[in-house]
Amino acid sequence: MKLYGHIVSPYVARVAFAARLKGLSLTPEPAPGGGIKSAEFLKLNPIGKMPAMEVDGHCIAESMVQLDYLEDAYPNPPLLPADALGRARARLLGRIVDLYVTASSRAFFVNMNPEKRNAEELEAGKAAYLKSLAQLEHFMGDGPYAVGNTFGYADIAILPCLQMMNLVAEPCGLTNAFNGLPKLTRWWAQMQTDPVASAMVKEYATAFTGFMQSRR
Ligand SMILES: N[C@@H](CCC(=O)N[C@@H](CS)C(=O)NCC(=O)O)C(=O)O
Questions:
Q1: Which of 20, 55, 179, 195 has an alpha carbon within 20 to 30 A of 41's alpha carbon?
Q2: Residue nearest to atom 18 of ligand 1 (CA)
Q3: Is residue 174 a contact partner of residue 84, using CB atoms and an 8 Å limit?
Q4: Is position 78 within any domain?
Q5: Confidence at residue 35, expressed as pLDDT on a 0 to 100 scale
Q6: What is the CATH number of the domain that holds 145?
Q7: How much distance in Å is there from the Cα of 153 to the middle of ligand 1?
């Protein structure tokens, strides 16, 4: 099994972290052919996005499908709750993050520089991000983890994405995005103290800030 992409992508990070929790060695490696738009990579994954997972000559695209594959193929230790409702709740949180929360990331990425900022676009991005966080909050569990009492699938699915969002929102003037959202606030604090989660937080922050500095 191979995982193509770079850990700086929150979608790659979530899969690499889930694999690690399952005791698998699945270090992200560069996309074949020199990048995700190369002919070689597009032959494997015509969507042209990272991560791509290669299993027995088959490509699995889309990080949440890859998380599900890991859960199905390597059930121990389980990352999803045992009950059907808990599993649906965990998957829903990942889906909300992918469809609604990270949708605002572009508005932050392209408006990071105050001198070249499109204020209207940025304000719309901030409003959409805050709205999506309130929607996520609605479906979050009561803690300490995203669903239930153990660190698992939902936490891993949302953690690098929310980290990335906050790391790009803060330079755009949006700090404390979780203000007024008690479940997200509590969960975020838990992620900084849980030994497994906090190691992931540090690893992702280092990768992402290094990437942002290299763009300057
Ligand atoms: N829904 C996809 C999103 C993956 C994605 O957007 N990856 C970004 C890197 S963070 C990418 O490859 N972007 C390249 C592009 O869109 O051309 C997943 O979950 O795997």
A1: 20
A2: 62
A3: no
A4: no
A5: 97
A6: 1.20.1050.10
A7: 19
Q: What is the Å distance from ligand 1's center to 149 Cα?
A: 30
> Residue 104 is part of which domain span?
84-215
**Pocket residue to mutate for ligand 1, from 4, 49, 59, most atoms within 8 A of Cβ:** 49
Q: Whose CA is nearest to atom 6 of ligand 1?
A: 49
Atom of ligand 1 nearest to the CA of 50: 12
Residues 100 and 67 in one domain: no
Q: Where are the beta strands (DSSP E) in the chain?
A: 2-4, 52-55, 58-61
CA dihedral for 144, 82, 92, 167, sign (positive or negative)? positive
Please identify, among 12, 40, 73, the residue that sits at the C-terminal boundary of a domain.
73
Instruction: Region of 31 please: left (phi>0), alpha (psi -120 to 50) or beta.
Output: beta
Q: Other C-beta atoms within 10 Å of 52: how many? A: 24
pLDDT at residue 68, rounded to an integer: 98
Ligand 1 neighbours by CB, cut-off 6 Å: 9, 11, 36, 48-51, 62-64, 98
| Ligand 1 atom closest to Cα of residue 61 | 20
Residues of the chain short of pLDDT 70, as ranges, are none
For residue 31, the domain's CATH number is 3.40.30.10
- Measured in Å, residue 93 CA sits from the centre of ligand 1 at 18
Output the pLDDT for position 216.
76
Here the tokens at position 139 are: 């479906």
pLDDT at residue 143 in the model: 84
Which pLDDT score is estimated for 181?
Answer: 98
